[in-house]
Amino acid sequence: MDDAAVLKRRGYIMGINLGEGSYAKVKSAYSERLKFNVAVKIIDRKKAPTDFLEKFLPREIEILAMLNHRSIVKTYEIFETSDGKVYIVMELGVQGDLLEFIKTRGALHEDDARKKFHQLSSAIKYCHDLDVVHRDLKCENLLLDKDFNIKLSDFGFSKRCLRDDSGRIILSKTFCGSAAYAAPEVLQGIPYQPKVYDIWSLGVILYIMVCGSMPYDDSNIKKMLRIQKEHRVNFPRSKHLTGECKDLIYRMLQPDVNRRLHIDEILSHCWVQPKVRGLSSAAIHKEGESSRGAEPSRTPETPDKKSATKLEPREEAGPETQSEPKPNEEETLQVPVSRQSDNMDLNGELPGRVIEEEALPQP
């Protein structure tokens, strides 16, 4: 039977194609039982690679079945047919994903970014408390419901953390994700702490939310790594970000894994907590951050729409000098503002998304 017939027998009326890769596709469908539209991920075992079938797919199915959080895409049903097709019926992000939202509307006001980032961080805390790591956090995997609330999706690279006899989480050696959102330790092929990896990706996402552009240019991985390891983060002056917001991003994009924030520290940060404002400049200076005080948020500029798939790169800014800045320069907590990583298909066939059990070349 074709997909439409299979879904019809299960009570779903198949709709439009939402995406397609070499061995997986996503369709919209109307659920006669639920009385609303859903998304159906269809995986063809006959076309999928062995490592995906033996490792990633079983992990994804196990984890999806156990998750239940308001900011995580709901999984309604998982079933398989005799001809080797797996159907995962999920909540539909009716407003699309966060990347498309930002490309269309521009960077978010800090208040809107705070709300969405708090929803995402709450979802990650829920996962991390269950010892589940996502390992592919990016704007394309953040769907928006009818009220533009965040719904975390795509647990294809997720896993449950293993612990040693002393209770410490065992380092991961499977290097996966998208280069533009990947932490420097992952790009270098160093065994990594998976929860700490997720935090770096959160930092990239928040930067994109409030700046409307990428924090690092992944077109040159060697150069990007050097900038990341120097802990340089450039913020566009035109966005007039508050000191609290920049401080949080700076602490998440910390190359030293022992100093990078944990999820509880993110949720308790003064920028995330709407009632606790006014981070002291002394606290910021302690991390070597910006010396500028909090500034009011302005209406964001809409990014260039030339590219349908990428956030447009901007000219790289060098380290901040002592001279008085000119309008529209970038202020440095120190990194080049750039483009998004190459688009990935459903299965991550393009280079840079997943490298199984081997390190990327050392810079």
Automatic annotation (TrEMBL):
Residues 335-344 have a biased composition (Polar residues). Keywords: ATP-binding, Cytoplasm, Developmental protein, Differentiation, Kinase, Magnesium, Metal-binding, Nucleotide-binding, Phosphoprotein, Serine/threonine-protein kinase, Spermatogenesis, Transferase, Ubl conjugation. Residues 284-363 are annotated as: Disordered. It comes from the Eukaryota. The keyword Transferase applies. Its main location: cytoplasm. Residues 12-272 form the Protein kinase domain. CDD domains: STKc_TSSK1_2-like. It is an enzyme of class 2 (transferase). It is found in: Cytoplasm. The keyword rRNA processing does not apply. Its cofactor is Mg(2+). Its EC number is 2.7.11.1. Residues 301-317 have a biased composition (Basic and acidic residues). This is non-specific serine/threonine protein kinase. It comes from Mustela putorius furo. The lineage of its organism: Eukaryota, Metazoa, Chordata, Craniata, Vertebrata. The gene is TSSK1B.
